[in-house]
Specification:
With 409 residues, the protein is mainly alpha-helical. The protein is built from 15 helices and no strands. Helix content is 78%, strand content 0%. Helix 6 runs antiparallel to helix 7 and helix 6 packs antiparallel against helix 14.
Length: 409
């Protein structure tokens, strides 16, 4: 007897929930880094290495299997990736040293890379043409997921004995259930030939989308680089620079940035993609400038206000970037193009943060953050200049609109 599949609308929202849940799991370790640092006695450089190795594994996964579901279908990739995610949670559960943490983050990165592109492409497959929400959810879900993960873990660390047992035990069960539940989803993508060739590591942007990709590139780098700084060193910044030794407050700083990213995406959801990208980059610049002012005045209140403004700009700019780059993308290229977007994002998320962790020992956390902030402001302004120049020299950045109706399973 054939398996009954979820209706299209129910499948779309189920995939959206799974995407947020997976991203929440990726944000859970951030408030726990200081806990592990105290338990195992490692430096800020080791901390950012643990943070960064996750992104490298994720990048490898995006480069190798990011477009695989365009060839073999969405469901097979999702099942394997969810099982890997459950395995990562088990490694965290039993971690008793730095080696375990590194292994857990590698496995989690491999799983997250496969899930990010495949779940995101499935949303584009299943969205309703008259109400296309795929780009919005793909852009808002990182902020929502990371916020839920970081804030939830921060609460548990502050108020619950043995928080790691609770967090990772529950998440192991959840991802095993998700792997089984994936069989209820309809297969939404055509199976194109060339599955083995697609495993060759590469970043592929279809020709019609390359100009938009290049214009959005500086803003993608700037926003994700700042997100990496907050996720890796944000709680340490709160404790060491602002003198607030509270794990929950460190998690709330990450929530202030990522949570208001959702508001930024919502506020500009109906705007033209280029307008959302432009306004988001400008608001992001104002927010990061506020962060620099907070460091100068050592004002924790200003730090949180700046994080809220920055997060709003992040959400708006990332929505504009994703919508601009992916508009009109053909069904057989959706996972590959989203993989390219997230390759850029996670490179920016990891490499600058690792460099910042190494710089802390030499020049201190405050000076490192100041230099980092100035660099992302410069990148955001470069994106604004590129977008304004593109507006003057061309009629538009987006590829021609194509049907977003899913292929029947």
């Amino acid at each position: 007897m054939p398996t009954r599949r979820l209706p299209r609308t129910a499948a779309f929202w189920s995939v959206a929930v799974l995407l947020v849940l997976m991203l929440a799991a990726s944000g859970v370790p951030s408030p726990l880094y200081r806990v592990y640092q105290e338990q195992f006695g490692f430096s800020s450089g080791v901390l950012t290495t643990i943070f960064g190795i996750y992104s490298f594994a994720l990048l490898l996964s995006l480069l190798v299997v990011g477009g695989l579901s365009d060839h073999v279908g969405r469901r097979p990739v999702l099942v394997v990736a969810f099982v890997l995610e459950a395995g990562a949670m088990l490694l965290f559960l039993f971690a008793d040293g730095v080696g375990w943490l590194l292994a857990a983050r590698v496995v989690q990165g491999l799983a997250t890379g496969g899930l990010t592109s495949t779940l995101g492409a499935t949303l584009l497959d299943l969205q309703r043409r008259e109400h296309p929400l795929g780009a919005f959810i793909n852009s808002a879900s990182p902020g929502l997921g990371l916020s839920l993960g970081a804030a939830g873990a921060g609460l548990l660390v502050q108020f619950v004995p043995s928080p790691t047992d609770w967090v990772f035990g529950v998440l192991t069960a959840v991802f095993l259930i998700a792997a089984v539940g994936t069989y209820l989803l309809p297969e939404s993508s055509p199976r194109l030939p060339g599955a083995l060739v697609s495993l060759r590591p590469r970043v592929h942007v279809p020709p019609l989308h390359r100009r938009a990709f290049l214009v959005a590139l500086p803003c993608l780098v700037a926003t994700w680089a700042l997100g990496g700084l907050y996720a890796s060193l944000g709680p340490s910044l709160v404790a060491q620079v602002f003198g607030i030794d509270n794990h929950l407050v460190g998690g709330l700083l990450i929530l202030a940035l990522n949570g208001t990213g959702i508001v930024g995406s919502l506020a500009l959801r109906t705007s033209r993609p280029e307008r959302a990208l432009l306004l988001g980059a400008l608001i992001f610049t104002v927010g990061v400038s506020g962060t620099l002012a907070a460091l100068f005045t050592t004002s924790a209140a200003l730090l949180f206000v700046a994080a809220v403004v920055t997060g709003f700009g992040f959400g708006a700019a990332f929505l504009g970037a994703v919508a601009t780059i992916t508009r009109g993308v053909a069904p057989g290229h959706r996972a590959g193009l989203l993989a390219a977007v997230f390759v850029v994002g996670y490179l920016a998320f990891s490499l600058p943060a690792i460099a910042a962790g190494a710089a802390v020992g030499a020049i201190g956390l405050t000076r490192t953050t100041e230099i980092y902030g100035a660099a992302v402001v410069a990148l955001a302004l470069l994106a604004v200049a590129a977008l304004l120049r593109a507006r003057r020299t061309a009629v538009g950045l987006t590829a021609p609109e194509r049907s977003s109706e899913p292929v029947a399973a």
